[in-house]
Automatic annotation (TrEMBL):
Domain of life: Bacteria
InterPro entries in the record: SP1917_dom_sf, UCP033199
Pfam family for this entry, one: DUF2200
Name of the protein: DUF2200 domain-containing protein
Amino acid sequence: MKNTRIFKMPFASVYPHYVSKAEKKGRTKDEVDTVICWLTGYDRKGLQKQIDKKVDFETFFAEAPAINPNVSKITGVICGYRVEEIEDPLMRKIRYMDKLVDELAKGKSMEKILRE
């Protein structure tokens, strides 16, 4: 997994795709925000600030208040890779977020998505 171009991609350019994917499956923007905030430790205001500043993924995760301690419970395949086996820490965080949004779009309950 060497495609590090995504590290410099603005988070704000991908975020609408997360929301769109979830909404097509009957979920809400609020639920997308909930899973992203759970993962990163941002509150809603902090998340919106990062979107408005158009920070790249690298900065988005570098400035994240606290990655959730339960991220190790996120397992499975996303984009053809097992998230728990991705070696690059930043890429793993990005794929964790992809996986959470994917689970949301697939109709999983919030309790299961948030590993409660």
